[in-house]
């Protein structure tokens, strides 16, 4: 009987610890509905805006450093041209040219099936997902895009387009739909790549059936910003 008594005592002790932790967390509030928990989303938005301001400041400082380095480097014209080409390929320089933009938007929350034979949508069917944005970005790269920005940020080789629910998290900043992806390149090839993508073809089924947003526009001249964030690798190491 002694092991049973010890086990019972341990269960009651664990339950007491859980109740104490819950009480300490709630501090007399309703932990499900208390408005104070909304402060977390406010904090996320505040940090996102702060990251944006820091990116802009970092970009301005980087331009100053590049200008000083170019003035004092003593490099030849050929070397300077090679460096400029590498910076453009890396996405740290501004890029101007013809472009195509794609805008994706959530469907109305009360949307119903617009095509006979389709089931009524679940909430998950009415929002933009990570794979939808990734499909657009991948198709544009395949179509020969020279550079891409998502919302107001330039993508580079280490950029990751991630979504939590229907919220986009990109390079330390948070965005809500509608989402706009802009690519500099030959508009006809970019459009063809979008049309040929199997993932986008699947997305278009939801556009037609439930009203998810899809808009493609051509632009004669667009200037993409240079990437201004950190280029340090946090989870990988360069090959020597």
TrEMBL record:
Highest taxon above the source species: Bacteria
UniProt cross-references to Gene3D superfamilies, sorted A to Z: Protein of unknown function DUF881 (3.30.70.1880)
Pfam families listed in its UniProt record: DUF881 (PF05949)
InterPro entries: DUF881
PANTHER family per UniProt: CONSERVED MEMBRANE PROTEIN-RELATED, UPF0749 PROTEIN RV1825
Family membership noted in the UniProt record: Belongs to the UPF0749 family.
Protein name, per record: DUF881 domain-containing protein
Organism the protein comes from: Streptomyces cavernicola
Lineage: Bacteria, Bacillati, Actinomycetota, Actinomycetes, Kitasatosporales
